[in-house]
Amino acid sequence: MQLLNFLDKIPYSILIVAAIFMLLAPFRPMPHVVEKLIMLKNGTLTKPIDVFDLFYHLIPTFILILKILRNFKK
């Protein structure tokens, strides 16, 4: 439960900026998340580095979702 207490200390503003930045990075030619989701849809997301890259770019979004869910449960 200490991890969840740590979530309470992170401001929403930082999480929102981090999530948006990581979802859009790199800005050109195409964000990695979009590229990896297209690869997943096409069945070509097979390399471990690509799977890691997808999860890496989604981490701030997952943390933001956890924080939102935790605040709704209180």
Query: C-alpha Rg, in Å?
Result: 14 Å
Order of helices and strands: HHHH
The figure for the number of domains is: 1
Broad structural category:
mainly alpha
Mean pLDDT: 90
The proportion of residues in beta strands is under 5%
Summarize the biggest pleated sheet: none
Give the beta-strand count: 0
Brief account:
With 74 residues, the protein is an all-alpha fold. The protein is built from 4 helices and no strands.
Question: How is the topology of this model organized?
Answer:
Blueprint: H1 2-9, H2 12-24, H3 32-42, H4 48-73
Helix pairs in contact: 2-4, 3-4
Structural overview:
By secondary structure, the protein is mainly alpha-helical. It has one domain (2-73). The protein is built from 4 helices and no strands. Helix 2 (12-24) runs antiparallel to helix 4 and helix 3 packs across helix 4. The protein starts with a helix and ends with a helix. The relative contact order is 0.18. The mean pLDDT is 90.
